Structures are given as structure tokens and as C-alpha cells.
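INPUT
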Amino acid sequence: MAIVLELLSRKNIPLKHFKFEQDYVCVGRDFNNDLRLDDPYICPSHMLVAIDPESGQLMVNDCQSTNGIKVNGKYVKQANLVSNDIIKIGRTRIRIIDTKVPLPIAMPLSELEENLSWLNKLSLAFSLVFACLAYLLFSQYLNSVEEFKLINALPSELGQLGMMLIWPLGIATLAKVVKKESHLINQINLTLLTSLLIFALNLLQKVIIFNIQPDGWFSWLELLVFAVIVISFIWLSLFIAFHQPDKRRNYITAAISILVLAPILTLGFLKDDEFNSRPKYNPILLAPIYNITGTIGSEDFVDKSQKLFDRVDNLKNN
Amino acid sequence: MRIFIFLLSIICTFSHSQQTAQSLFGQYQTALYQIKIIDLESGNKSSIGSGFQVDKAGNIVTNYHVVSEYIYYPEKFKIVYMDHLGEEGPLKLVDLDVINDLALVRKVNLSDAEEAFPIAPELPSQGSNIYSLGNPHDLGMIVVPGTFNGLKKNSFYQRIHFTGSINPGMSGGPVVNELGQVMGVNVATAGNQIGFLIPLAKVNELIENKDAAPLANDQLKVRIHTQLMVNQQRLFSRLKSQPWKTANLGQASVPAQITEFVSCWGDSNANDTDVLYLSVENRCRLDEQIFLHSGLTTGGVELEFEWLEGKDLSQHRFYSFYTDSITGAGAGNKAGKIDVTNYRCQEDKVTNIHGVTSKTVFCLRAYKDYQQLYDVLFVAATLDHQDKGLISHFTLAGVGRESASAFTQKFMDSIEWQ
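OUTPUT
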């Protein structure tokens, strides 16, 4: 039977594992040991891990070391070990592995991950950056009433693009630290695609508002669509960055989404009707070609306004 | 020698007018009072003005705005007078005229020798000397000589035009002719050496109620409400009945001087070469507003038109700018949370009888203290052109439902393409 020892970092992250096809393992700083550890707080011959020939149990013996042995945080001279016990000698941590305990079966490869492989294209990233920049510049052009100079507009729009890239850079760095693989291109492409989607929906929203002058329900619909986009974006971002169980990913997504959406909900929707000397209305005006729905006569408009009088009368009672 | 006589005559005129002023001061100072609003909690005055006695029964005329705090919060304040000797005494509110900024108060305790200002039978001729009496800055009674310049032209709320400085504390003081007869009440100052006075007729109307019992606290706002309703009806029935003069603005024809008592102004950016659009503006408004209390004015009417032409702007650029131009319209009068509700708006695309299509926004807020009285805000932008458009906008303060609807209808249908 073999003895398997795993060298741990200070935060119990596995660094290296050693498998010994023998019944005992001498551990110490001396080069004669089976497992040689370069730790100045460990004695040349520090401890012995052995399988008891009678019971077949793993046990550890202190070889009269200076600093002793801690098993699961307690000093021992001699102790029986079970799987996953952590031994601390000097400043080194070692985990005992029982090779008889079966490991969980492998996580199935996600189809989604395969389907997302198209995101990992540098050329796509370039074209998306170009598309976003073009959109930002164009909207600045549309909002200007003075002569438009590209060279003046470029710095601020590049800055905005830079802001948009903070998220993918951040999460890619995190992924690199934890998993040693950043998926930077994927993250950038995902972020830019989401931004473009939001830009497009924004334009659609203007056309809808201009044509049907919706009431309060429309802003709830806007919030709902926005929430769906934010949640899927965060989920996909996490999915690309880390290999984590679905449950854990869902929790993190929920937490971040709440952080993003809660302020929008409370500021924009739940805030009660605070007094304002300026009325709230939708000022959106679009060129005649976007005018799809019809118009009403001025008399109808005035007739309809009678209801508005009743509405403001009712506000008095609140 | 001639010069000497000339100088002498100038000195004589000067001393003559001074003499009149002095004699006036001496003659009537017993009937002239400082009116103070005292905060009951702190016992200190929160505002002051002037007032003058009109009969031996102790009735004193002053400005509504001097006593407005008491009218709004009768439990929090009291009104007292201070006479020329510094003696103080309580006053009761008998009546008010919020439209003409007048109030009638009455001394609770009468003395044996009550003095009163005589009321002039008619207005003096234009150019004659008149004297404004009052109590500015809490310094004691003063006399300001001035000239009677007739009734203010083009004014819905009639005012006497007075050349002379009326200071804030003189509000409510009388204006007398050379015989010492009251022919107006100080009300406001519109800059250097120009003041406005409330003319005789309005004072007489108020004094008619001098025998009435003092108004109960719960009747104060009822009285204001009635006066506001009658006034808005009078104003808007006049606006509705007469045809509106129109003016050309860009390619549109818009109402301009809708009545003689609105004043209109124009503006354009034609000399601004940096921008790529042309903007021509036309603004008309009723100059006077009705003061209700320091946070609430009403009775105003504003009309604004702006013709926009995107000379070198593409249609999308123009419409983006056009959107910005109708963003953030605000109320034309001052009103706070305690006075009015929030605005609510109705939006639609409307085609008027002349076939002009506009995106139209109609907003209302209601007065909390006064039933059936609203502030209206209207903004519309035409949608008939690729890179041109007309923004029409008006605000009405303190109007009834019918007046507001009739005005809105007439306004919307008065816009046409040339």
C-alpha cells in the first residue's frame, strides 16, 4: 500500500503531491529522508509517517524534533491519522491522502462552453471595438449643433470605450490569478457585444416611446429587459472566467446583479413622487420617417385632458 | 438780474413742495401706522409695512402682501399696529383683495381722538404732484414726493404709474394728492424711480366692506379662492372672446400680441456664426402676477414660440437638437410643495385644424388649498419638416378647468403654416 502526502500552501491550496510505494516515510531536512523539506524550522530528521503492519492504519511519530508536530492544530508525539488530516511541521503543511477513498466523478464538459468558442477571436474583438467607437462617435456627432471635428471628439469617446473595458480587464485579471487563464478576448467581446445590444435597444426604445407614448408600465418593461441583459451578461462573464459549480455561479450572479439593479430600482421606481417644479415628460422627437402611428385631433386631445384634471385632483388627497 | 429771479423762483418752488410735504406729514401722521406681523412663538416681528386709517371706526388699509403671513397661518401670527408715538395695539383682519394686493384691518381698541385720511373723489390730472407716505426700513414715517403719470398702460390689473422711489417697507402706505386726499396705495417698485400704486377705485371697493365683521380664520382662504376664481374667469373670457393677433415666425404663423396687456419680446441667433442652426424666438407675457404668500404667486400667463431651422444640420442631427430644445420646461410661477401637487402630463401626437402635426405635452398641477384651480404647462413641437420645426409653449397659473381647456384649444388651433 502506498502513502500519499500532499504539500499545501499556507491557505491549504495543494502545491505538490508525493506518492511513496512503501510502508513508512521519513520526513526531515536531511537529504537522506524520503521526503526532504527545505524549511529551517524542520529538524534534519523530524517525523515518521508509517502504516501500522497490524491494523493497517496510518500513524505519525515525532522523531524528537525541536518544534514538534501538530495534527489538525494539536501538538502530538504520536497519533493515528485519517484521510485529510493536516500535519504541520515547522512552517510546512502536509495533507494525508487516503487513496482508498473514491473521488467525485468528473464534471461533464459544458456544451455552452463549446458553443462560445467563436467569442475567442481577435478579429471579432477588433471589429467590435471599431463598431462601438463608431457608434459613440456617431451619437456625439448627432448631439452636436456646431461643426463636428473628429479629432476633438475622439479623446472623450476613447475614454468612454476605456471605461467599458474595465470590467473585462478586471475579471480577466481575476481569472488569470485564480485559474492561470485569462480569456481576455472572450471577455472583451462579450462586454462589447452586450454594449452594442444595449445601444440598439436604446434606439428601439426611442422609436417606441415616440410612437405610442406609453404610460408607467413601459419603464417597468425597460427595467425588466435591462435586468435580463445584466444578469445574463454577469453569468456568462463568470462562466468564461472560472470553472465553478453552477450553484455557486448563480449565487455570485445574483449578488452582483442585486448590487447593480437595486440602486436603479430604488432611485428610479420606488422613490415616492418628490415635489418638483418641473414636470416629467418624454421630450423625444424623431424625424418624420419614424412617425409610424397616427395622430389625433386637437379637440380629442383637449377632451382627453379632462381625465388629467381629475388625476391631479386626486393627488391632493395623498 | 434775470438769472437771480430765475434762481429765486426755483428755490421758491422747491420750498413750496417741501412745505406741502412737511405739512402733510404733520397733518396726517396720527392716521399713518406701521403694520407689523408678530410671530407668536418668538414674539418678534416677521414682516413690516405701512397702513393708513380711513375712518373713525378704526379701519386701516394696507397691502395684502404685508399681512399675507397672517392670512396663511392665522394661528402662528398676529397683526399689530404702531402709531407715530410708538404705541402698539392689536388689529383684526376685516377683508382682503388678493387680486389688487389690498387688505382692510381694524383697530380693536379705539382711542378718543381717531384721525382718518380723506379719500380723493377722483384721480388727479396727469403730471401733478403726489406724495407717497410710508415707513421704509423701520426708520419712521417718511414722505416721498413724486409725479402722477396716469394709469399704467396695457395692464390687466390696473396700477398707477408713479415716478418716485417706493421702498419695500412703504408697502401699504397711502399716496395722497396735494390736498392730502388718498388716491392710491403703494405697492411695488419696478426699479429706480418707478413705482406702481393701486388706484383709487380698488381702494374704494375695499372700503365698501368697512362695516363688515372681521373674517374668521377659516374664511380667509375661502375669500381668496372666490377672488381668484372670478379673476381668472374675467381674464380668460377676455382672452377667449377676442381674436388673437398673429405674427409670422419662420414658416409658421403664430399668435403674438393676443391681448393688449401682454408684452412681447423677440430674439434670434442670426448673428451667431458658430452654430449650425437658426433660432428665432417670440415671447409674450402678462407682466403682473398675483402674490399669495412668499412661496406662491399665481395669475401669470406666458407664451413662447421658437422657430428652429437646421441650416447645415442633417435631419437626425436636427431632431436630436430639437429634442433637447423641448427638454426641461418649468413652471412660470413660484409654488412650493405645500401649495401645489406635482405635475402630471399627457402626451400625444396631435394634428390641429390647420393640419399642423405636433408632438404635444400638456401638464397640470392642482392647488392644494383652492378647489378647481390649476397651473398649466404646455409644450409642443411640430413634426412636419425634415430639418425645421416650431416649438410652441405656454404656461398659465391659477386657472380653472374650463378656462384652461378653452385656452389650450384656441392656442393649439391658432398655429398654421404660411
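end of record. The longest strand of chain A covers residues 14-20.
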